[in-house]
Write a structure and sequence with these properties.
Blueprint lengths: L6 E6 L4 E8 L7 H4 L7 E6 L4 H12 L8 E7 L5 H18 L3 E4 L1 H9 L12 E7 L3 E9 L7 E10 L8 E4 L4 H17 L22
Parallel strand pairs: 1-4, 4-5, 6-9
Antiparallel strand pairs: 1-2, 2-3, 6-7, 7-8
Helix pairs in contact: 4-5
Length: 222
């Protein structure tokens, strides 16, 4: 009897809600068509933890995949922010550590890119939106914004033209603007899809470059 296909685990903690996703990866040599067809529906779970994330991250992951089965993981994917300093850092560091210890690929994607894939999907007759900005106002600091555009040449079909960063005001952002609103369950599902595509493309996924994204300093004045 052959061993079960490895798992793909996704973590999204760029809001007050931790979202965890789990899905089987296609087996090696399954063929190009099969590689983009998941073996089974994803398992998704959301946990409104707030500041409790530091104590409850691992127990929440274990509700979908107990620790004794972590060696069955074949690939990890994590949202790198922008988001809360503590929440984003914890999930990214934990994913990096697990990927290093298990010697498996890890991929990081900004939380804004995940939103952009939801909001900028091709319209009727395959029409795609032009470049657009996702914006999040920060009182007394400015606006965190990233720029996105549909692009069939990049993984997942949505290009991050400008990574999320802090601007003094949104008035200088040329083009369509949309509010950046996290939808934990929908966004972790986007993470799983990107992880499946990365696996199908045989992307290596080194853990070292995957870092939390901080458009602002966690310490005022820095």
């Amino acid at each position: 009897m052959s061993a079960p296909a490895p798992w793909l685990l996704a973590l999204h903690s760029s809001s007050d809600t931790l979202a965890v996703g789990l899905q089987r990866l296609p087996e090696e040599g399954a063929g190009a068509a099969a590689e983009l067809e998941p073996l089974e529906p994803p398992r998704l779970a959301c946990f409104p933890l707030g500041r409790r994330l530091s104590n409850e991250l691992i127990p929440c992951v274990e509700t979908l995949l107990p620790a004794e089965h972590w060696r069955q993981l074949g690939r990890l994917v994590v949202a790198t922010g922008p988001g809360g300093f503590t929440g984003t850092r914890l999930s990214v560091v934990w994913a990096r550590t697990l990927a290093q210890q298990l010697a498996i690929p890890l991929h990081g994607f900004s939380s804004f890119l995940l939103m952009a894939r939801r909001l900028g999907a091709p319209g009727p007759n395959g029409a795609c939106l032009e470049r657009f900005w996702l914006t999040q106002e920060l009182p007394r600091r400015g606006v965190v914004a990233g720029c996105y555009q549909a692009d069939a040449t990049v993984l997942g079909g949505m290009a991050e033209r400008v990574a999320p960063q802090l601007f003094k005001q949104s008035a200088g952002l040329v083009g369509l603007q949309r509010p950046a609103v996290v939808e934990p369950e929908a966004d972790v599902a986007q993470l799983l899809e990107l992880g499946q595509r990365a696996a199908a493309a045989r992307q290596p996924g080194p853990w070292q470059p995957v870092l939390p994204l901080y458009p602002t300093s966690p310490v005022d004045g820095l």
